[in-house]
Design brief:
The complex is a heterodimer of chains A (about 290) and B (about 120). Chain A is mostly helical and about 290 residues long. Chain A is built from twelve helices and no strands. Classes of the chains: A mainly alpha (about 290), B mainly beta (about 120).
Amino acid sequence: MELSSFEAAAIAAKALTYAFSLSAAGGAIFVLLFSPLLRAEERAQIVRVTAGFAVAAIIVTALRLPIIAATLGGDLFSMMDWPLLQFAIESSEGQAALVRAGGLAVILILAVSSSPVSVVAALGAILVAASFALTGHSLSLERGLIPQALVAIHLLGISYWIGAFYPLRLIAYRSDPPGVALITKRFGDIAVYVVAVLMIAGFALLWIMLESPLALFESDYGRALAIKLLFVAGLLGLATVNRYVLTPALLRGDISALPRLRNSITVEMLLAGLVLVVTAGLTTVTGPPALE
Amino acid sequence: MLKSIIASVATIGLLSASPAFAHAALKVSAPKSGATVAAPQTLSLTFSEKVRLTQVKLTAEGKDVSGVQVDRAAPAAPTFSVPLPKLAPAKYEVRWSALGDDGHPVNGTFTFTVSNTAS
């Protein structure tokens, strides 16, 4: 399959939008849920990085609109063609960008205020997740709000997971394994329910999009999804190791579990990156069988 | 470099002899792609779903044909009729672009020939 430069740019921008937006949303959720267990300097650092993710997400979200204009115009100059930009802004993609930027701006208040605003910032995270349901294939299915609600729930769950990568890796630099274990154990206890919900929402979406399990192998969209599910299986495997091997080791005071946890999270970050690039690719250059 | 990395990852699992695009697509045009016709007064484009037609460009022998404009205020619809200026006999290339309801931009090209002898 040959990708045009604009398609490649659109996929890259979409993958970065997913990564930064979901990291910012997840960072806000992490601060809300785990602040009492964090040291002051850790919380401050996590808030700074979350704010950085939010700013980066606003930039790449905005950048996607000129990329749409360039795709419509067929050349780079069209990125600044106001009538084409207007089409992009008025489209569902433009409306989603506006809602997402609003949610990210709400998350940014974490950086300028202290703990009472954590709840508000987490509401911003919900807006960010919901923004992805305002455009794309879930909108085209014309099956009411169900696919869109499933997308929002799925992405909110993913943001809990992805948004915890940086904070957990930072905490794994502490020198007291039991203190780290308190946080990883609580994270894992909540993750059991979050992952269950995000998987149920994801498989319900799969059911709607693919129409038949065979489409997982017979359509381009299905095959790309199958590859994505392989990466997700890798992520789940690592999460299981973190919960059932590394966290008990940390609770026992095993100091060697700290670098192993950091390495495990690094690999999780790479796998999650691949999942996001494949997702960006399959939603940009192909579509679900239900829409054919 | 970046493009090839993205292309490599994004095409994992997307490799197929017949790529399926579930985004809006041009279904029918008048004149039809590859047709030889008498000078048409309008260009009609029918899509697989409702879109906003954003641009139509007509070229003959590499030169832009002036006077081809889409109604950019028009709402999303599956069919559009674009008024054409008086076309001299030549082979014309149509480049169109549109924005689907789902926010996906789509575009394409096709050609037709204007001939005095066509009925």
